[in-house]
C-alpha cells in the first residue's frame, strides 16, 4: 500500500517539489523513500558501525566525521552517524552535509524542528557529546520553595529585555480544590494562551507569552480528578487553574518539580508536547479528502488559535512520524462561537489522503476509538491582524483551504469593520473542491462573502475560471471596497503556488504586512 515513489518525482508543478518548510525536496532514488528508511532501520543492520555500543564523542572526534561517506551530526547533545541516511533524506545529501561533523541543532530547528529525529535516527545514534549537562541554576532552591510563593522565574531577564515583567505563580487550597494562580503580567493573555495537561503523574501548564512559554511542570503530591477548570482574567493576565482533589487531605506542597518547571523558555526551545486524542468520526468530504474529528482527553485544556496548526504523530512500523495539520471548524455554516472549555473538546481536520504518502494512508486506516497524538499549536498568524480590517482576500489551493475555514468564520462573526471577504479557491477539478456547497451557501447567506473557483484541469463542461494563479486572475479578484481600505490577503497551498502568489501580490504593491502566507 505504501508504494515506492516513482523516479519521475517531483513533477514540474507538483506540490512535492518543495517541502512543507519551504526548502527544496530532491528526487530520491527508487527504493529510498522514508518508508524504505524505516524498513532499513528495522532490519537489524548495524547502522552506526559501532555494533550497538554508545560512546562519548568529543568535539575533535565529531569534526573528523565530515564527509558523505562518514558523516556524524550532533543534535541537542546527541551524535548521529547519518551516513546511511544520506540517500533517504527528503532534503537531499547537500542539506545534511551543511551540518557534517558539527552541531546541526540550529540548522535542524530552522528547517524541521517538528520532525521526530530521535525516532527516525535512533538506529544511527553514536552517543552523547562529552560535556556535562548543566543543571538549571535554581534547581535546588526550587525544590525547597515549591510549596508556596516562588521566586522570580529563572529566565526572567529575557522578557524583561523586551519590556515585559517575568511571570510567577502561587497556589492555594480549600478542602476540595487546589488553585494554581499564574501571574503573567501581560495584557494579551486569553484562553488560547493556556495549555494544560494532566497525564499519568505529570501536571503541565504552558502559558504562551509572545515568543516564549512559561511552564509549570510538576508531579503533583496528591491525586486529582480528571477534569479541571481554567479561568483567565484578561486585563491583568492572571490565570487560575482549579484542580479538584480526589481526597480532602491538606496538601503540604504542590508537588515535585519536573523538566523546565517554573521556567520561561523561548518557544523554539520547548520541544513539542503531545497528548493522545481519540478518533471520534471520519467522514468523506471529496473523493480523497476526509473530515476527521478527534477528542481531547478530559485532562487537557487546549484551544488551537485561528490560523495555527498542530502536529499529528503516529507510530508507523515502529517509527514515530509527525506531520502538520490545520484544525478547521466542523462546518462553515455553524455560527462561530468563542470556545468554552467544556464543549471545546473536539478538534476537526480536513485531510487529503495521498495513496502513496507515508502518513495519510496510516491515518486513514485508524478505526473509530483509536488514538492519535496531537501537539501544541504553532504558527505565526495573529488575530490582531484583523483589527479594523475592511477587506479580507483569501487565496487557497487544494488543502491550503484549511486555515481559511476558521479565518472565514472568525472574521465574519467578530470583525465589525469588515466589508468584504473574498475567497479564490484553486483546484484541479470540480471533484476536488472541498465544501463547495457550504461555500456557496455561505456566500448566499452573508452578502459580504464571495467565492470563486478556479480549476487547473477542468472538464469541457466547466464554464467557470480556469488556469493557475496569474496577474489577470488577481487583478480582477483584488478589488478593494474603497481606495484606502484596510486589507489583509491570506494565501496557502502547495509551496510553489504560495511563492508565486506572494510575488504577484508584491508586484501589485501590497505590503508585507498586508500579506499573510501559511507555511510550516
Ligand atoms: P507524503 O509521504 O509527504 O507524500 C505525498 C505525495 O508525494 C505522495 O503521493 C508521495 O508518493 C509523494 N512523494 C513524497 N516524497 C516523495 C519522493 N521523495 N519521491 C517520490 N514521491 C514522493 N494537509 C491536509 O490534508 N490538511 C491540512 O490541514 C494540512 N495542514 C498543513 C499545515 C501545514 C503548516 C503544512 C506545512 C502542511 C499541511 N498539510 C495539510 C500537509 C500535510 O502536512 C502532509 O504534507 C500531507 O498530509 C502529506 O503527508 P503524507 O505523509 O501522507 O504524504
Ligand atoms: P493540489 O490538489 O495538488 O493542487 C491544488 C491546486 O494548486 C491545483 O489547481 C494545482 O494545479 C495548483 N498548483 C499546484 N502547483 C502550483 C504551482 N506551482 N503554481 C500554481 N498553481 C499550482 O494540492 P494539494 O494536494 O491539496 O496540496 C495542498 C498543499 O497545501 C500541500 O502542499 C500542503 O502541504 C499545503 N498546505 C499547507 C498548509 C500550511 O502551510 N498551513 C495548510 C494546508 C495545506 P495543478 O493541477 O497544475 O497541479
UniProtKB/TrEMBL annotation:
EC numbers for this chain: 1.6.2.2
Keywords attached to this entry: Endoplasmic reticulum, FAD, Flavoprotein, Heme, Iron, Metal-binding, NAD, Oxidoreductase
Keyword Cell inner membrane: no
Compartments reported by the entry: Endoplasmic reticulum
GO cellular component terms, semicolon-separated: endoplasmic reticulum
Domain FAD-binding FR-type, chain residue ranges per copy: 272-384
Residue ranges annotated for the CS domain, each copy included: 164-255
Any matching Pfam family: FAD_binding_6
Catalytic activity: 2 Fe(III)-[cytochrome b5] + NADH = 2 Fe(II)-[cytochrome b5] + NAD(+) + H(+)
Composition bias, Low complexity: 1-16
Similarity annotation: Belongs to the flavoprotein pyridine nucleotide cytochrome reductase family.
UniProt name for this protein: Cytochrome b5 reductase 4
Organism: Acinonyx jubatus
Amino acid at each position: 500500500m505504501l508504494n515506492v515513489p516513482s523516479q519521475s518525482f517531483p513533477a514540474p508543478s507538483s506540490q512535492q517539489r518543495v517541502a512543507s518548510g519551504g526548502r527544496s525536496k530532491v528526487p530520491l532514488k527508487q527504493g529510498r523513500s522514508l518508508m524504505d528508511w524505516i524498513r532499513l532501520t528495522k532490519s537489524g543492520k548495524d547502522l552506526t558501525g559501532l555494533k550497538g555500543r554508545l560512546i562519548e564523542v568529543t568535539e575533535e572526534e565529531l569534526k573528523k566525521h565530515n564527509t558523505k561517506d562518514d558523516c556524524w551530526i550532533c543534535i541537542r547533545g546527541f551524535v548521529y552517524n547519518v551516513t546511511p541516511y544520506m540517500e533517504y533524506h527528503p532534503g537531499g545529501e547537500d542539506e545534511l552535509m551543511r551540518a557534517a561533523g558539527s552541531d546541526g541543532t540550529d540548522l535542524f530547528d530552522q528547517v524541521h524542528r517538528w520532525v521526530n529525529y530521535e525516532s527516525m535516527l535512533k538506529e544511527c545514534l553514536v552517543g552523547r557529546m562529552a560535556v556535562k549537562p548543566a543543571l538549571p541554576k535554581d534547581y535546588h532552591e526550587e525544590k525547597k520553595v515549591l510549596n508556596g510563593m516562588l521566586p522570580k522565574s529563572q529566565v526572567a531577564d529575557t522578557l524583561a529585555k523586551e519590556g515585559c515583567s517575568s511571570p510567577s505563580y502561587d497556589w492555594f487550597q480549600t478542602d476540595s480544590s487546589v488553585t494554581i494562580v499564574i501571574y503573567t503580567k501581560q495584557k494579551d493573555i486569553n484562553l488560547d494562551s493556556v495549555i494544560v495537561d494532566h497525564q499519568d503523574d505529570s501536571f503541565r501548564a504552558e502559558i504562551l507569552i509572545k515568543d516564549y512559554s512559561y511552564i509549570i511542570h510538576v508531579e503533583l503530591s496528591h491525586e486529582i480528578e480528571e477534569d479541571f477548570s481554567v479561568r483567565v482574567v484578561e486585563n491583568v493576565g492572571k490565570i487560575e487553574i482549579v484542580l479538584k482533589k480526589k481526597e480532602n487531605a491538606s496538601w503540604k506542597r504542590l508537588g515535585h518539580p519536573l523538566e523546565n518547571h517554573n521556567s520561561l523558555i523561548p518557544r523554539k526551545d520547548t520541544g513539542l508536547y503531545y497528548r493522545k486524542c481519540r478518533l471520534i468520526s471520519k467522514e468523506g468530504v471529496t473523493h480523497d479528502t476526509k473530515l476527521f474529528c478527534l477528542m481531547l482527553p478530559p485532562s487537557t485544556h487546549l484551544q488551537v488559535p485561528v490560523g495555527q496548526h498542530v502536529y499529528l504523530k503516529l507510530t508507523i512500523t515502529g517509527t514515530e512520524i509527525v506531520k502538520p495539520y490545520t484544525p478547521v471548524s466542523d462546518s462553515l455554516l455553524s455560527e462561530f462561537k468563542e470556545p468554552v472549555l467544556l464543549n471545546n473538546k473536539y478538534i476537526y481536520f480536513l485531510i487529503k489522503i495521498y495513496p502513496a504518502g507515508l502518513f495519510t494512508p496510516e491515518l486513514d486506516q485508524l478505526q473509530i476509538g483509536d488514538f492519535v497524538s496531537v501537539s501544541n499549536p504553532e504558527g505565526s498568524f495573529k488575530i490582531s491582524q484583523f483589527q479594523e480590517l475592511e477587506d479580507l482576500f483569501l487565496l487557497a489551493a487544494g488543502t491550503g483551504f484549511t486555515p481559511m475555514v476558521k479565518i472565514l468564520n472568525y472574521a465574519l462573526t467578530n470583525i465589525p469593520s469588515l466589508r468584504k471577504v473574498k475567497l479564490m479557491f484553486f483546484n484541479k477539478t470540480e471533484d476536488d473542491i472541498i465544501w463547495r456547497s457550504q461555500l456557496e451557501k455561505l456566500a448566499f447567506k452573508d452578502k459580504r462573502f464571495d467565492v470563486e473557483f478556479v480549476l487547473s484541469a477542468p472538464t469541457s463542461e466547466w464554464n467557470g475560471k480556469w488556469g493557475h494563479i496569474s496577474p489577470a486572475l488577481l487583478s480582477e479578484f483584488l478589488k478593494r471596497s474603497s481606495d484606502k481600505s484596510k486589507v489583509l490577503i491570506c494565501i496557502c497551498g502547495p509551496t510553489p503556488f504560495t511563492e508565486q502568489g506572494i510575488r504577484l501580490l508584491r508586484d501589485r504593491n501590497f505590503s508585507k504586512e498586508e500579506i499573510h502566507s501559511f507555511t510550516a
